[in-house]
Amino acid sequence: MSPTVVTLSCVNLKGGVGKTALAVNFAAYCGTSGRPTLLIDLDPQTNATFSCIDVDEWERHAARHGTVADLLGARDHASAEGKQRSVESIIRRNVFENVDLIPSHLDLFTIDLDLASATAREFKLRRAIKPIENDYEIIVCDCPPNLTIPTQNALAASTHYVVPVSPDYLSGLGIGLLLTRVNKFCGDLEHELENAGIVISRVGRRALHREMTVAAIRERFKDLVLTHTISERVKVSESAAANRPIFDMGDSKASEEFTEISEEILERIGV
Ligand SMILES: Nc1ncnc2c1ncn2[C@@H]1O[C@H](COP(=O)(O)OP(=O)(O)O)[C@@H](O)[C@H]1O
Ligand SMILES: [Mg+2]
User: Fold this and answer.
1) Closest ligand 1 atom number to CA of residue 164
2) Of all atoms in ligand 1, which is nearest to the CA of residue 240?
3) Comparing C-alpha atoms, which of 23, 180, 237, 225 is closest to residue 213?
4) 246 CB contacts (<8 Å, ≥6 apart)?
5) pTM for the structure as a whole
6) Phi and psi at residue 120, in whole multiples of 5°?
7) How far is the CA of 19 from the centre of ligand 1 (A)?
8) Where are the domains of the chain?
9) What count of other Cβ atoms lies within 10 Å of the Cβ of residue 260?
10) What residues are in contact with ligand 1 under a 6 Å CB criterion?
11) Cα–Cα distance between 269 and 17 in angstroms, integer?
């Protein structure tokens, strides 16, 4: 029997909390530790994509081979005969060691309108990746900061999700709402999805309000909150701009933090 792939979505209603940095570097960690990994970028802002490949490479790949917009059935992304591109051709191989990428496309911004009357529109991704999912040990989905169709497709294709949060008052407020919404969505679809935890990310210099926010999040969500945290470090943004994982950037502290958080996530998702 083929092993069951674990699929992890990075979700939060808020932007700028470190979802993409975690998705990309967790995928990179899984790859370097010998696990065949697929990273799927579901955000029309294409940040995970551009953390792995440059714009020219993306343009060529999108034109020749397609993107996640084809898989979800965005308008103008199917051929005249209505034929979809195959998932195999859309995958960009080896963006990092043992990491393949399904790139995103700006056209996902209007996917909710394009699929307004489509049946089973939450399951487009799950169906599309079925033929290749057993090629991987781990699939990581990077989501946009909302719960619209792309995120819904990621959740419906996932076994687990993590919620990166930055330690500020407003970020803390949205966590409860997000968890409730995700539970309701999965209940409606009768889809089992496990919360692998809340990751406190982009922790800046010591400040009383930050410490109070982190303490309040830990008090409220208890064991759901991962022990390790990720600090704010310049090399994290630089690694995205260099299309490299944080582990290649010569910042041992940052590498250590992403290693620890990745190990903790792997333990929680049973890999
Ligand atoms: N730990 C970090 N230290 C420094 N910069 C970070 C860190 N995590 C993310 N960033 C940067 O902050 C911005 C937002 O992070 P990102 O991961 O894209 O958030 P999200 O996906 O939640 O919108 C990006 O420019 C990213 O490079
Ligand atoms: Mg992002």
Assistant:
1) 22
2) 27
3) 225
4) 21, 25, 28, 235, 236, 239, 254, 255, 258
5) 0.97
6) 50, 40
7) 7
8) 6-268
9) 15
10) 15-21, 47, 145, 202, 230, 232-233, 236-237, 240
11) 21
Give alpha helix (H) positions in the chain: 19-32, 47-52, 55-65, 68-72, 87-90, 111-114, 124-129, 149-157, 169-189, 208-221, 234-241, 252-268
CA of 268 to the centre of ligand 2 (A): 22
* Type of residue at 145: P
Distances (CA, A) of 234 to 14, 72, 197, 262: 21, 34, 25, 19
Tell me the per-residue pLDDT of 196-233, one tens digit each, with 9 for 90 and over: 999 999 999 888 888 999 999 999 999 999 999 999 99
The CA distance from 35 to 29, in Å, is 9
The residue nearest atom 25 of ligand 1, judged by CA position, is: 237
Per-residue pLDDT tens for 81-136? 556 789 999 999 999 999 999 999 999 999 999 999 999 999 999 999 999 999 99
- Report DSSP state, residue 227: S
Strand partners, 39: 101, 140
The sign of the CA dihedral 26, 197, 124, 70 is: negative
6-268 is classed CATH 3.40.50.300: yes
- Other CB atoms within a 10 A radius of the CB of residue 255 amount to 19
Q: H helices of 136-228, where? A: 149-157, 169-189, 208-221
